[in-house]
Design a protein that fits this description.
This protein has seven helices and three strands; from the N terminus they run αααβααββαα. The chain has about 110 residues and is α+β, with helices and mostly antiparallel strands. It has a single domain, classed as Arc Repressor Mutant, subunit A. It starts with a helix and ends with a helix.
Amino acid sequence: MKQDEKIIEKKYQKANECPITLFMEQIGGKWKPVIVWLLLLNEVMRFNELDKAIDGISQKMLSQQLKDLEKLKIIDRKAYPVIPPKVEYRLTEKGKSLKENLTKIMEWSNKNLK
């Protein structure tokens, strides 16, 4: 084993030390990539639009996923002081920076995981 391989082996003995694992824990999962992808395609969406666009997600789960993405500064939430409440979601610059990587993952998945 080369010296460089030993360093990498030691550095990633624990999975949570790996940047890919960190990404998957925070932005991966069943719903967050879908939410980010929809916002990449549509730029701005309201809660009900997201709810209708994602089959199988509960409103509670959607709300939690949006809060998580907002906390990570991936999306921005804008609430308007009107009745009934109007809330819009859009990607931040940080969120928009995921486009190239998510596109490549989608292409790889379409090619290799059918």
